[in-house]
Amino acid sequence: MIVETQFVRFDALDLDCGARLAPVDVAYETYGELDQARSNAILILHAFSGDAHAAGLSRSDGKPGWWDNMIGPGKAFDTERYFVICSNVLGGCRGTTGPSSINPATGRPYGLSFPVITISDMVRLQKKLVDYLGIERLLAVCGGSMGGMQALEWAVAYPEAVVSAIPIATTARSSAQQIAFNEVGRQAIMADPDWNGGDYYGKKPPARGLAVARMVGHITFMSDESMRVKFGRRLRQKEEFGFDFSVDFEVESYLRYRGSQFVDRFDANSYLYLTKAIDYFDLTNGTGSLVEAFRNVRARFLVISFTSDWLYPSYQSIEIVNALRALNRDVAYCELTSNYGHDAFLVDIAEQSELIRGFLASTHRMVSGS
Amino acid sequence: MKGSGESRRRGFVRGILGRSDYAIISEWVEPRTRVLDLGCGEGELLEWLVQNKGVEARGIEIDSRKVQRAIARGASVFHGDIDEGLSDYPDESFDYVILSQTLQETRRPLHVLREMLRVGRRAIIAFPNYGHWTVRLSLLVRGRAPVTRCFPYEWYDSPNIHFFTIKDFRTLVEEQGWTIEREIFLSGTYRGRFLANLLAEVGVFLIHK
After folding, report:
1. What is this structure's pTM?
2. Residue of A78, A121, A309, A348 marked catalytic
3. Which of the following CATH numbers is that of domain B4-208: 3.40.50.150, 3.40.50.2300, 2.60.40.1190, 1.10.357.10?
4. What is the pLDDT of residues B11-28, one digit of tens each?
5. In this predicted complex, what is the ipTM?
6. What is d(CA A262, CA A207) in angstroms, rounded to the nearest whole number?
């Protein structure tokens, strides 16, 4: 499956902070065919560092999509049955308008003049895309982590437009621990002199700060066990300690590698804006009552969490499920066993695929009325 | 009429579900109702009820492999413990709450029964009868913890933690002031009432408050 990212421009988007962005570009990809009744569309929502390229091989660089193991012919999101859409989020740096985009008012990149955005702003922009594609109702909205927050927001913000929602490894409101890790990442970026108050475009980017932020992120995505199995205390290309501060352990080498690799494809200011959107996310709008938040929801739900995910622990998924059960909504929940930590939804996909395939099939049957 | 059509259907249900208590339950549940199946396993009963009776089906199951298969079948199943798992449902959320062959495995059977009758208007309970003659004989003659067709486990690896008979169950229902609407006793292919507490391997009860 060779795919190409497409682009669409919308005149303006009103944001939660009161600002208006104009214009707004959206990068998106689609896979499969929309059926005649327009009833087989599924919106995939990417996590923090993802992009519109969710599946297939990119025409430009040949790279597979970030969820290529889940989306495609015969896979969980079977592109022979469903029309699958994925777009880059607002505030991102992979084609959709974000802090690295050109501000039409100044002719220069926004940098910190980009308004602070929220998860619901992202979803409002996705709704424009879905409308533009001529789809009234989505068979499913699905995503993991930050993508799961968007899936929840979709079900709450557009109850008529969502038949089912599949939030994976996520929460209905960011916890103190999640906010804390995000803040460490942001401080690492802002402490890098190259960050320069967010004004580094065309100059040296804050590569060291962004790499450190990503290193912290990677630690939170793995589990104690997955790190023990993957690295243990193995030394990196040496027999004994170096007695210096070069790389000794495999785990150090891995984190440095992931950090430096990230710098090539991600914008430091996007890191700040997207983590802030995650921190602000609270489906209850500060009321603390998820039951109230879900009162108008009509979608059926499949909620998935993973045993070793300590960044988005299962209790946060159960909170979502229990609020939906209190309202007697149609909700299925499964905690899958995995050692891969928060990363599990991206890598440990056999059981997740089985769940989603069956859930989508039964949802599709309900919609088609057969 | 309960002619040969009915018995053919019974045979069919049995063939599909493979369990005689499932056959009874699937007959008792009225079409287009809301059903919660506790300890629903891989969701076979729920799937059958959805397809043949158009019920709105929910389940609770503790084994994650079974939950996966049940969800894959299209049942909306909650991965959790039935001892605790009912508390989030509002009163009278369901027309039927089903507990098939698991009451003896719960930590607090009376609590579970009360919760069933809180969240459901009716409860259907099927359980293996500890008063069956093979159980009595096994203990009397062998002098060891009974291992029978309905209680096939050695004492040290049995999931069963409460042992009760059909008589025990009826007594409890009476004490709680609940009503038995229907009851059926099964032993192999036999369904009858005669000396139920001695001859039935499984009792199936439909009760309400």
Report:
1. 0.92
2. A309
3. 3.40.50.150
4. 444 444 456 778 888 899
5. 0.87
6. 9
